[in-house]
Amino acid sequence: MTSTLFFMTMNSKRVFLKKSLLSGLGVFGSFSIFGKEKKDNEQAQIRKELADAWTKSEKYSLEIIEQMPDELFGFEYTSEAMTYAEQWRHCAVFTFMQLCGRLKLPNPYEKAKPKVDLNKAETTVEVKKMYAFVQQAIQAIPLEKFEEKTDFGGEIPIWRLFYAMENHIIHHRGQCIVYLRLKGIEPKGYFGW
Fold first, then answer.
1. Which CATH superfamily is domain 35-182 in?
2. From CA 92, how far away is CA 126, in angstroms rounded?
3. Which residues are CB-contacts of 144 (< 8 A; sequence separation ≥ 6)?
């Protein structure tokens, strides 16, 4: 490499050194500052992707909630199943419990959970509260916290916990879609990611 630098013009040397240093492969070796910048960028991207995914999830969940008539929020297809409203209530309570417990945040349901027999308006309020909380948590936690590990059926990074919670909601939203069909209501199509 020294012989290469010897035969380069001064301007070429500056360009070569600048590109080498910026790529982290320079003649002086890799600098941790470039690795930290890359890590910060990756974590910021995770934050953005999580926020986008949860925004889409909220939009679709509220569409599915809106489709069920208020008088059918107590509908359950068997006596062992949760009612339509309970499916959504469970999503909110479980999401708060998991995220608050693992991120060491105050849980608004710690002392009093919402009643079981919610109507349409009350269900909508609880679901919106859950999504607002998740978005707030995504924006508020320090970037490096996304990489911390938590136990959730095995060790996973915190960013995956957010996806696990969204997966849980997808499961129950899917059940709610079946409830709609059982009542002869054609659910709106999925919005995608």
1. dinb family like domain (1.20.120.450)
2. 7
3. 43
CA distance 95 to 130: 7
| Domain residue limits, the chain | 35-182
pLDDT tens across 16-32, in order?
A: 444 444 444 444 444 44
Cross-strand pairs, 155: 151
Q: Do the beta carbons of residue 127 and residue 169 sit within 8 Å?
A: no
Cα–Cα dist 135/86, whole Å? 23
pLDDT by residue (tens digit) across 53-109? 999 999 999 999 999 999 999 999 999 999 999 999 999 999 999 999 999 999 988
Give the integer Cα–Cα distance in Å for 52 and 138.
11
Tokens (6 digits) for 185:
């209501």
